[in-house]
Amino acid sequence: MTSDDLRDWQQYMQLTDRAAARVLGIRPDQYTALLDARGSIDRPMALACAALAAGLRPWGSHDGSDRPQLRPRPKPQRLLPVHD
Q1: Which of 50, 39, 43 is nearest to 8 (CA)?
Q2: Confidence (pLDDT) at 70
Q3: For the chain, is the Cβ count within 10 Å smaller at the N or the C terminus?
Q4: DSSP-derived 3-state class of residue 2
Q5: What CA–CA distances, in Å, run from 48 to 11, 13, 29, 56?
Q6: pLDDT, average across residues 17-29
């Protein structure tokens, strides 16, 4: 991810610089430094942007809807032999 990609992400998400910094969990001056950076932006930041764009919630923030549905295992059936 480059600073240009970060700008594209920000535009896609329709966020101001301050709001983008807030949702990424960094200070506004850190976000500005990322926008001004030349070269690549680290993988964790790129993954955070992708997760936010996909609408994912932080890991562990379960409201029950994203947790797999656990069902009790059915009891094994003992089938009787069939005689014709």
Answers
A1: 50
A2: 61
A3: C
A4: strand
A5: 16, 13, 18, 9
A6: 95
d(CA 50, CA 12): 11
Considering only the C-alpha atoms of the chain, give the largest distance between any 2 of them, rounded to a whole number of Å: 81
Burial of 78 (0-12, 13-18, 19+ CB in 10 A): exposed
| DSSP structural state of residue 77 | P
The pLDDT, as a whole number, for residue 74 is 72
DSSP states along 26-49: S-HHHHHHHHH--SBPPHHHHHHH
Question: 77: which residues sit within 8 A by CB, 6+ positions away?
Answer: none
CA–CA separation, 10 vs 20, rounded Å?
A: 7
Q: What are the distances in angstroms from CA 10 to CA 14, 43, 55, 63?
A: 6, 17, 14, 27
Q: Tell me how far apart the alpha carbons of residues 32 and 6 are, in angstroms, rounded to a whole number.
A: 11
Angle, helix 3-13 to helix 28-36, in steps of 10 degrees: 130
